[in-house]
From TrEMBL, chain A:
Pathway: Amino-acid biosynthesis; L-isoleucine biosynthesis; L-isoleucine from 2-oxobutanoate: step 1/4; Amino-acid biosynthesis; L-valine biosynthesis; L-valine from pyruvate: step 1/4. Gene3D superfamilies: 3.40.50.970, TPP-binding domain. It comes from Ekhidna lutea. InterPro entries: Acetolactate_synth_lsu, AHAS_TPP, DHS-like_NAD/FAD-binding_dom, THDP-binding, Thiamin_PyroP_enz_cen_dom, Thiamin_PyroP_enz_TPP-bd_dom, TPP-bd_CS, TPP_enz. It catalyses: 2 pyruvate + H(+) = (2S)-2-acetolactate + CO2. Binds 1 Mg(2+) ion per subunit. GO terms for cellular component: acetolactate synthase complex. This is Acetolactate synthase. The lineage of its organism: Bacteria, Pseudomonadati, Bacteroidota, Cytophagia, Cytophagales.
TrEMBL record, chain B:
Pathway: Amino-acid biosynthesis; L-valine biosynthesis; L-valine from pyruvate: step 1/4; Amino-acid biosynthesis; L-isoleucine biosynthesis; L-isoleucine from 2-oxobutanoate: step 1/4. Catalyzes the conversion of 2 pyruvate molecules into acetolactate in the first common step of the biosynthetic pathway of the branched-amino acids such as leucine, isoleucine, and valine. Belongs to the acetolactate synthase small subunit family. It is an enzyme of class 2 (transferase). It comes from Ekhidna lutea. GO terms for biological process: isoleucine biosynthetic process; L-valine biosynthetic process. The lineage of its organism: Bacteria, Pseudomonadati, Bacteroidota, Cytophagia, Cytophagales. This is Acetolactate synthase small subunit.
């Protein structure tokens, strides 16, 4: 046997093993601990090999492949590790697509391994054959089909390198059944470089200096950070930068929890249902600093009226995001941590108290016109806002909040007072209903020491409700909060505001969620009355392991403020 | 902003499936491809895609950056007409009988810098290399003589830049962009 030097100081001998076993050995080399998956014909050799690796690799059997990918996303988003999925060919693979797309647009490191029919059957419309490489092309950072076992180590090494370096994203490796079954001489070498892939462009000095000059002269600077801060682990650098420069700072939806909401320089979150101040002040600031975000249309509204008066500094790792939606005056291409570290010594210590006070004045307006109505409603039933607000108080802003998509998601973003890093997981870019429950399962597995709370609407809950089976089988201690208004609330809100209250197919007859939950042996309770909420929270949160709380909320609550789709951010509606 | 014809030149690893990955970036934005050519380069294992498309410069600049993001793409460049040398090749098939009946034709073909590449089975095939406009002009000249078949290649282009492909690849191979480095200025 040939001895080769793999990683420095570690000598590895080639071993003759099957492709299937090689896949698992690659994962172990990449320090993978957990796999979310679902077996089927074309991936059975891998599952058979997995039987012997049970002690080294934990496999979570989901109830639908969409559950696997969302769980892997939740796992990756919270733990910072790569999420790994297994699925079979055909429907198994296609069921992953929604989650892969979600991971692509929200920059989540994922490696999906799909089984494929034997190589001699490719292209023949064989049983459960689908061209998953073709299908996943536009929604993966990279994909590759393996037809020979010898290709497995390099393909997987590249997959892990690509998924987690630079701007992270999902990678799919499709492996034919014959490549899984044949044996070959296995040696693993981690990937450290791909010449056609340059994940960290060299940081240039001139834009840093230009940005520092703009920041140092600014009278009304405003900073908006996104998930790039969390992805690069730049939370501490951001805090030091903000404190030194005294710049009022806001978060995007995906940036939430990268900076404490209790910090005196934090001015709220921006976007369609964000806070009044950061939206309005976007169009009043003189220098706009965007860090690790991509100017999504839900953030900008009408781009032709967005921050036109300001000098825009865009700090972003992905060069393709520069000038894509908003033209910048200074672009700094780099990782948020790297850039903030380099920028910090170049900026002056400053304070902008008067300017900050303008944000606080906006907060007062928002409080009077929107927040108060939501938190102290006249309605008999509770509002989503007050439930989230009370949950935030109860958990002191320290829990991991995983949300689905819709009104409850916006309410969670608005009213949960995040005070701990890496505490917010949501489907931002794609807006995938059904994301929450499996993502919360993955998040809890990724960080078992933290309290993970899934906040879900009644609509989204029913999209991946089957994953309750995973909670039951593996006793995953996820806390589930259903905000039930028997409506697809956000669509209903739009129907009310923009479609003359024509509530086309948005009202739902729901099943008894308590019975369903109990059917999965998850303790559950329903609360309807305001004065019972506190007690219900206590019981729900103190229960060991998973438990479900259904809160019956006001049917026709609206999320305000709101920047109507495609409007100018300063034309934000407060009511 | 005005839509114009631009040339996108993409250097890639010679890997299957890349053509698809590249073209969906254009089709996503509903940009129609006027012509596309894939060829080898002077560097072994490196392919060149030459895409001609009509769109605004701003849109194509975004497209070029999105193409560059593909893992197997080495470099992606946007060119205006005056930044490149380019040619296309056109083939015209006529009946030999018609050709022989019109003595003028041979002279016309020579005037256009075209040449005859085959005379077989009572047919004659003429080849003309040039810009799209030039090959089109010859088409118009031959049209009255009943063109039996006509085909035109995609554009091939090389830039006027003095950069050597090999040096460009070498730069990529030795750059420090593979890992994150924190440095101070």
């Amino acid at each position: 046997m040939e001895a080769l030097i793999e990683n420095p100081g570690k000598v590895v001998e080639a071993e003759r093993i099957s492709g299937s076993e090689a896949i698992l050995r690659c994962l172990i080399n990449e320090e993978v601990e957990t796999i979310f998956g679902y077996p089927g014909g074309a991936i059975m050799p891998v599952y058979d090999a997995l039987f012997d690796y049970e002690n080294q690799l934990r496999h979570i059997l989901v109830r639908h492949e969409q559950g696997a990918i969302h769980a892997a996303q939740g796992y990756a988003r919270n733990s910072g590790k790569v999420g790994v999925c297994f699925a079979t060919s055909g429907p198994g693979a296609t069921n992953l697509i929604t989650g892969i797309t979600d991971a692509q647009i929200d920059s989540t490191p994922i490696v999906c391994i799909t089984g494929q029919v034997a190589s001699h059957l490719l292209g023949s419309d064989a049983f459960q054959e689908t061209d998953i490489i073709g299908i996943s092309m536009p929604v993966t950072k990279w994909n590759f089909q393996v037809t020979k076992p010898e290709e497995i180590p390099e393909a997987l090494a590249k997959a892990f390198y690509i998924a987690q370096s630079g701007r992270p994203g999902p990678v799919l490796i499709d492996i034919t059944k014959d490549a899984q079954q044949q044996s070959f001489d296995f040696i693993y070498k981690r990937c450290e470089r791909i010449r056609s892939y340059q994940p960290y462009p060299e940081l240039r000095e001139e834009p840093l200096k230009a940005a520092a000059a703009l920041i140092n002269q600014a009278k009304k600077p405003y900073l908006l950070f996104g998930q790039g801060v969390t992805l690069s682990g730049a939370e501490d650098e951001l805090k030091r930068f903000v404190e030194k420069t005294g710049i009022p700072s806001a978060s995007t939806l995906l940036g939430l929890s990268a900076f404490s909401t209790k910090h005196p320089l934090y001015v709220g979150y921006t976007g369609m249902h964000g806070n009044y101040g950061p939206n309005v002040k976007t169009n009043e600031c003189d220098v706009f600093i965007a860090i690790g975000m991509r100017f999504d249309d839900r953030v900008t509204g009408d781009v032709t009226t967005y921050a036109k008066q300001a000098k825009v500094i865009h700090i972003e790792l992905d060069p393709a995001e520069i000038d894509k939606n908003i033209l910048t005056d200074v672009a700094i291409i780099g990782d948020a941590k790297q850039v903030l570290k380099a920028l910090l010594p170049l900026v002056n210590k400053n304070s902008h108290q008067q300017w900050l006070a303008e944000f606080r004045a906006c907060d007062k307006i928002e409080m009077d016109k929107a927040v108060q109505k939501s938190l102290e409603p006249k309605s008999k039933l509770m509002t989503m806002a007050e439930v989230v607000h009370k949950l935030s108080e109860k958990t002191k802003g320290k829990s991991v909040i995983v949300t689905d998509v819709g009104q409850h998601q916006m309410m969670a973003g608005r009213y949960y007072q995040f005070d701990e890093l890496k505490s917010h997981i949501t489907s931002g870019g794609l807006g995938t209903m059904g994301f929450c429950l499996p993502a919360a399962i993955g998040a809890k597995i990724g960080t078992p020491e933290r309290q993970v709370i899934a906040i879900i609407g009644d609509g989204g809950f029913q999209m991946t409700i089957q994953e309750l089976g995973v909670i039951m089988q593996y006793q995953i201690g996820v806390k589930i909060l259903i905000l039930n208004n028997s409506f697809l609330g956000m669509v209903r809100q739009w129907q009310q505001l923009f479609f003359d209250k024509r509530y086309a197919f948005t009202e739902m007859d729901n099943p008894d969620f308590i019975k369903i939950s109990e059917g999965y042996r998850i303790p559950a309770q329903r609360v309807q009355e305001r004065n019972h909420l506190d007690e219900a929270f206590n019981k729900w949160l103190n229960q060991e392991g998973s438990s479900l709380l259904e809160v019956v909320v006001e049917k026709e609550e609206n999320v305000f403020p709101m920047v109507p789709s495609g409007s100018c951010v300063s034309k934000i509606r407060l009511e | 902003m005005e839509k114009r014809e631009y040339t996108i030149s993409v250097l890639t690893e010679d890997k299957p499936g890349l053509l698809n990955k590249l073209t969906i970036i254009l089709s996503r934005r509903k940009i129609n491809i006027n012509s596309l050519n894939v060829s080898t380069t002077e560097v072994k294992g490196v392919s060149r895609f030459t895409i001609v498309a009509t769109a605004t410069k701003i849109d194509l600049e975004k497209v070029v950056k999105q193409i560059r993001k593909l893992v197997d793409v080495l470099g992606s460049f946007l060119y205006e007409e005056d930044q490149i040398y380019y040619q296309e090749i056109a083939l015209y098939k006529l009946s030999l009988e018609v050709f022989q009946q019109n003595g003028l034709l041979e002279k016309l073909i020579r005037q256009h810098g075209a040449k005859i590449i085959a005379i077989e089975d009572n047919q004659i095939v003429i080849e003309k290399t040039g810009t799209k406009q030039e090959t089109h002009e010859l088409y118009e000249v031959l049209e009255p003589y009943d063109i039996l078949e006509f085909a035109r290649s995609g554009r091939v282009a090389i830039s006027k830049s003095k950069r050597r492909t090999e040096a460009f690849i070498h730069e990529l191979e030795t750059s420090q962009s593979n890992t994150l480095s924190i440095k101070e200025f």
